[in-house]
Amino acid sequence: LTILGIESSCDDTAAALVRGVPGTVHILSSVIYGQAELHADFGGVVPEIAARAHAERVDTCVKEALFQADLALSDVDAIAVTAGPGLIGGVLSGVMCAKGLAAGAGKPLVGVNHLAGHALTPRLTDEIAYPYLMLLVSGGHCQFLLTRGHGDFSRLGGTIDDAPGEAFDKTARLLGLPQPGGPAVQAEAAHGNPTRFRFPRPLLDRPGCDLSFSGLKTALLRARDAIVTDKGGLTRQDRADLCASFQAAVVDVLAEKTARALTLYLAENPASPVLAVAGGVAANSAIRARLETLSADHAIRFLAPPLALCTDNAAMIAYAGLERFAAGEQDDMTLAARPRWPLDANLPALLGSGKK
Ligand code: ATP
Ligand code: FE
């Protein structure tokens, strides 16, 4: 199967072509038009600007992806598109483009949940069997997903407030670092002292796999203000120490909660157990390193996608579409763009602690 994927749910307009069957595919092309420079002056993604940019660029992006794969639209078996969750203006641009292409070329249309795209990334990059444990950590989400199939996710737990990506971005903003904050904070943390500030590790005292990141942000703000009041401003070292201490708290919390989620996952008796991470925050090297050690301690395989497949891309959307299409699922022209779309919407929560 050859699938065209289109992604436009946040601030990356992306198109990609993948070819293969579920569990064994390769990426023929993956084009991403980022919008960082459009939002740089605003300290975050401005939905209206994002929507306009997606609408202006999505067709060129698709054309470029087809060109790079040396294919024509007539060569694809189906058109997959992110139908949510995300900024609605952007999602609409992608869905309208996909509908137009599907109608024009007479191709099947497959709506994809953006989070499923992230969560299925381990099967795009490696031959991984279900079930696996997915830690999805991104700009807007943080959840442990027991992944049993392309549409079969049970949420074992997740954040009760902010997502880690949001926390990284806010930290960067508070310290005058550029957006997206994750890479900037990671770079500063590399030459900082992670033990100088003792930031909270929220919810570790409570059972279950739920997480919280909003208190961390407040603690960071207080620590910053205390230094500013005391010394009149932040030195480079202060900034690096704040970043390192913040990152250490995120890593500790994720590691402890992942260990708990692993216990629940291993109770499923998977034949070849796998812990996988995905989402933009999975690009963080400190998080990857800690989870790798944790997995080694549990004697299970650890998978983290290459950095370009952690943050938003259309290859993951094409792949999730491929799994749906191969299973006989597709959509028609009534496919709706959805701002909110929880992955486990139709599934019973496995545990009380996972419910929100
Ligand atoms: P969602 O997938 O939840 O809808 P999104 O699509 O906006 O949100 P992604 O593109 O998956 O999110 O991830 C973007 C986030 O990843 C940003 O918050 C960014 O700061 C964060 N991020 C990127 N690289 C790193 C890194 N090295 N360390 C920490 N965070 C990072
Ligand atoms: Fe994303």
UniProtKB/TrEMBL annotation:
EC category: transferase
Required co-factors: Fe(2+)
Keyword Transferase attached: yes
GO CC, alphabetical: cytoplasm
Superkingdom per UniProt: Bacteria
Record-listed E.C. numbers: 2.3.1.234
A biological-process GO annotation: tRNA threonylcarbamoyladenosine modification
Function: Required for the formation of a threonylcarbamoyl group on adenosine at position 37 (t(6)A37) in tRNAs that read codons beginning with adenine. Is involved in the transfer of the threonylcarbamoyl moiety of threonylcarbamoyl-AMP (TC-AMP) to the N6 group of A37, together with TsaE and TsaB. TsaD likely plays a direct catalytic role in this reaction.
Protein name: tRNA N6-adenosine threonylcarbamoyltransferase
Species for this entry: Aquicoccus porphyridii
